[in-house]
Design a protein that fits this description.
Helix content is 60%, strand content 0%. The chain is mostly helical and 70 residues long.
Length: 70
């Protein structure tokens, strides 16, 4: 992975957050490709992102991310 690539940087930042795996980070970046879009997303929008395994990100992780960044 190339840390100079904005998508990789976005995923790496998210994956550093408690409870956010690289799979969850990738699902979030797929839903909100730019950092600006992610920052503009509601807690509910983040919670309802579906991961490749079919599970949603969920309210606990969404709340944690929302609290960290807002």
């Amino acid at each position: 992975s190339n840390s100079a690539d904005p998508k990789q940087f976005h995923m790496a930042c998210l994956a550093q957050c408690p409870g956010v795996s690289t799979t969850v980070a990738e699902a979030i970046v797929t839903a909100f490709p730019s950092w600006s879009e992610f920052m503009g997303a509601s807690e509910v929008a983040i919670a309802t992102i579906v991961q490749p395994n079919g599970r949603k990100v969920g309210p606990a992780v969404a709340k944690r991310l929302w609290s960290l960044f807002h």
